[in-house]
Amino acid sequence: MNKCVLSASGSGHPVVCWLLTAAEMKRCDSNTSEIFGVPSVVLMERAALSCVDVIVSRQKKLEEQAGQLGLHPKRRVLIAAGGGNNGADGIAIGRLLLQEGYDVSFYLASGEEKASELLKLQLHTAKAYGAVICDTIPDGEYDIIVDALFGIGLCRPAEGIYREAIEWINAQDAFVLAVDLPSGIETDTGAVLGCAVRADVTVTFGFWKRGLLFYPGCKYTGKVICTQIGITEDGFLNQTPEAFTFTAPVAELLPARPEDGNKGTFGKVLLLAGSEAMAGAAILCGRSAFYAGSGMVKLSCPTLIHPVIQTALPEAMTADSVEASARWADVIGAGPGLSLSDRARKELLFVLQQTLQPLVLDADAINLIAKDEALLQELIEHQQNPATRRKLILTPHPGELARLEGCAIEEILKQPVFYAKKWANRLQAAVLCKGARSIAASPDGSIYINRSGNSGMAVAGSGDVLTGIVTALLSTIDDPFWALCIGVYLHGLAGDLAAHTKGEYSMTSNDIAEAVWAVLVKQEKNYV
Ligand SMILES: NC(=O)C1=CN([C@@H]2O[C@H](COP(=O)(O)OP(=O)(O)OC[C@H]3O[C@@H](n4cnc5c(N)ncnc54)[C@H](OP(=O)(O)O)[C@@H]3O)[C@@H](O)[C@H]2O)[C@@H](O)CC1
Ligand SMILES: Nc1ncnc2c1ncn2[C@@H]1O[C@H](COP(=O)(O)OP(=O)(O)O)[C@@H](O)[C@H]1O
Ligand SMILES: [K+]
Asked: Most buried by CB count within 10 Å: which residue of 242, 319, 489, 491?
């Protein structure tokens, strides 16, 4: 993992939130027990206690509020348990609630003979405290349902009695707490395997799992509470998880601005963007580059649109071709509104074959490369060779990535992490697959999953703003993957701010660009 991540998370500012796969979590669980000697049953007791805390403090609040009205909320709980350790957590939660005086019913969906060892132990203890374990859902009304059917061990679609139990839970008018993950959500992808519980709260143990963040999983979790049960980063044993996301603020990761810097210090950004029909893309991209900290921005675009660009963005310079400005630039961004014209192709060829500066490829730059097999092969060969390799970022949306890959877009949507990693490796580049949860992949295998942003960003020009931000950051941040992660995160925060003022329905991509400065000011203030 990037050193920057580790120093940032060790500095007292919690910048990085790890996102684990089922395999990574299982390894961390077993390292904690087998290497560090913390017994599984101790971890399980802490896991159960953390869920009980959530239930009891919610109940207390309810009872206080209801008490003022002379009402007495009931405490009827159903534990729905599966045959593995998620079910064992559920039984432990039920036993602790019994001890707290709650009225608890237990439903064990799998037969006791198939139960995991820890589940057998929990059943034994719960029964000793008077628990009655039922093999069908006990009739009755419930105020609280604990979903402990499956956690990270879900390995096939929920069917039969499990589907019935999930559908029954979803039909109840009760507060639903999911243990570790809503049952039916695949840990690594967030996919719904068959059907899934819709929870009000998900209490997840130790670390976030990827499926809690990805769509559609995140629509099933309700509020996610990640509790500490004794499984810490020590359990990684120097094998850090592949994926992470940011928690605000990230100001300490932004490039420092030397007090005695000049406009050259902060990056000379050359943008190959805009065409007769898409001048706005160049303007959005250039404006965002300025707001993200660039010292100078030059736009290479057809002469015909220079006046409109100069009017909208007088701070920027314009050029007829990249050739004259190639030496001047510290960094190049290509693609927004570029079109697939012969001029665009010629300009892009020049950039790819005659320059070595760090480069961001987006939109039509990617489409032009995808159309030209010889050019694509040449780019791959250049990037595979350390002597000719440049710092490179690609920011395709799934459609553009599908064109590069030569497959259907559905294929990319099914496995976005796989394809982002594949192209990061093939091009030795930082590659983004854009979407509601954009995924950035680094050639070293690290994955960033973005959680800032909102559906108001699904609007024309939003990607042009991102290219401007990322290109600006690449001029002063050494590691392209890092520049990409920070840029994507800030872009989403700008989208959130734009949504706050204009609303998701009405915001435009220019509102996102116009929010970039305010996001950076906020980041600085939070950090001080
Ligand atoms: N130290 C630790 O280890 C700690 C672990 N903790 C907890 O353990 C959980 C992981 O436990 P786990 O590995 O036992 O997996 P789990 O989620 O219970 O699922 C496996 C069971 O489900 C079954 N099954 C799967 N899919 C199915 C389907 N579609 N339809 C039907 N059955 C299906 C599968 O059956 P099988 O495939 O064997 O037939 C098996 O019985 C984790 O999420 C956390 O809650 C915490 O207490 C913290 C400490
Ligand atoms: N539902 C959403 N939630 C969060 N971000 C989104 C959502 N939909 C789109 N975005 C973001 O908006 C941007 C759209 O980029 P892109 O598809 O290239 O648009 P355009 O080509 O119109 O500029 C991406 O950064 C994407 O991650
Ligand atoms: K569960």
From this structure: 491
458 falls within a domain? yes
Same domain, 86 and 174: yes
Q: What is the pLDDT of residues 180-201, one digit of tens each?
A: 999 999 999 999 999 999 999 9
CB 155 less than 6 A from any atom of ligand 1: yes
The residue behind tokens 């810490």 is 232
Kindly report, residue by residue over 6-31, the tens digit of the pLDDT: 333 334 445 889 999 999 999 999 99
Among 288, 409, 462, name the best residue to mutate to test ligand 2's pocket (greatest count of ligand atoms within 8 A of Cβ). Answer: 462
- Do 342 and 236 lie in one domain? The reply is no
On whether the CB atoms of residues 94 and 106 are closer than 8 A, the answer is yes
Q: CB–CB of 362/462 below 8 Å?
A: no
Would 522 be classed as within a structural domain? yes
> Ligand 2 within 6 A of 461 CB?
yes
Summary mean pLDDT of the chain: 94
Domain co-membership, 311 together with 427: yes
* Whether the CB of 179 sits within 6 Å of ligand 1: yes
ipTM: 0.95
- Does pLDDT of 58 surpass 90? yes
40 is in an annotated binding site: no
Boundaries of domain holding 101: 19-241
Ligand-binding site membership of 435 (annotated): yes
Given CA atoms 283, 456, 442, 408 in this order, what sign does their dihedral have? Answer: negative
Asked if residue 256 is part of any domain, the answer here is no
Q: Are strands 331-334 and 268-272 parallel, antiparallel or unpaired?
A: parallel
Q: Does residue 278 sit in the same domain as residue 154?
A: no
Per-residue pLDDT tens digits for 403-418: 999 999 999 999 999 9
Residue keyed to tokens 């030397």:
258
Same domain? 282 vs 195: no
Q: Are residues 329 and 191 in the same domain?
A: no
User: What is the Å distance from ligand 1's center to 395 Cα?
Assistant: 37
147 annotated as ligand-binding: yes
CA 189–ligand 2 middle distance (angstroms): 20
Q: What number does the ligand 1 atom closest to the CA of 87 have?
A: 18
How is residue 207 annotated by DSSP? Answer: S
CB 21 within 8 A of CB 188: yes
Q: How many domains does the chain have?
A: 2
Is the same domain home to 412 and 320?
yes
The rounded distance, in Å, linking the Cα atoms of 189 and 19 is: 11
Same domain, 234 and 335: no
Interval 146-176: pLDDT, tens? 999 999 999 999 999 999 999 999 999 999 9
Per the annotation, does 330 bind a ligand?
no
Residue 88 Cα to ligand 1 midpoint, Å, equals: 9
Of all protein residues, the one whose alpha carbon is nearest to atom 43 of ligand 1 is 151
